[in-house]
Design brief:
5 strands; 5 helices; 5-stranded mixed beta sheet; Aminopeptidase; about 20% strand; alpha+beta; about 30% helix
Length: about 160
């Protein structure tokens, strides 16, 4: 069965293939999104929520999920361009959801750029819905240790 896709948990030997795939599929100029660094951090924290899709012993997709005890997250999903539209992304999402549910996770969230209509539609077809939320972020790694931002009283007001 040459066209069978097998989804399994991440193994350390997958690192090189995953990093190469992430560079090809999800290029980013942001240093905190460097695939090699991000994967190494994730493996140290929670490697049991990384799943890989293989076809003929070739890595063709992967999903990275997380669970903090309150909510699950899909941090990243990638499928090689020549293997898209064949259900691999959905298989990976379902595998991540099953693993999160087994951990007692009640809800899964993910983020997609608002301009990425194709990916938004993919997640809608997988059962995800847009929620009325704003996503805020703050880069911590660019703040030098000796230049910690001063406390802002507005940050303490609730």
């Amino acid at each position: 069965m040459p066209n069978v896709v097998h989804v399994r948990r991440y193994r350390p030997t997958d690192a090189e293939s995953l990093v190469a795939m992430w560079h090809e599929v999800l290029p980013s100029s942001q240093p905190w999104n460097d695939p090699q660094t991000a994967l190494a951090r994730k493996v140290r924290q929670q490697d049991d929520l990384i799943f890989v899709a293989e076809k003929k012993a070739e890595v063709v997709g992967a999903v990275i999920a997380g669970y903090d005890g309150v909510r699950g997250w899909i941090y990243g999903l990638a499928v090689m361009p020549n293997h898209r539209k064949g259900g691999i992304g959905r298989l990976l999402i379902r595998e991540a959801e099953a693993a999160l549910q087994a951990l007692g996770c009640p809800k899964v969230n993910l983020q997609v750029r608002s301009t990425n209509s194709e990916v938004l539609e993919f997640y809608r077809r997988c059962g995800y819905e847009l929620e009325d939320r704003s996503s805020l972020g703050r880069v911590l790694s660019s703040v030098p240790n000796d230049q910690t931002p001063q406390s802002n009283s507005q940050c303490h007001e609730l």
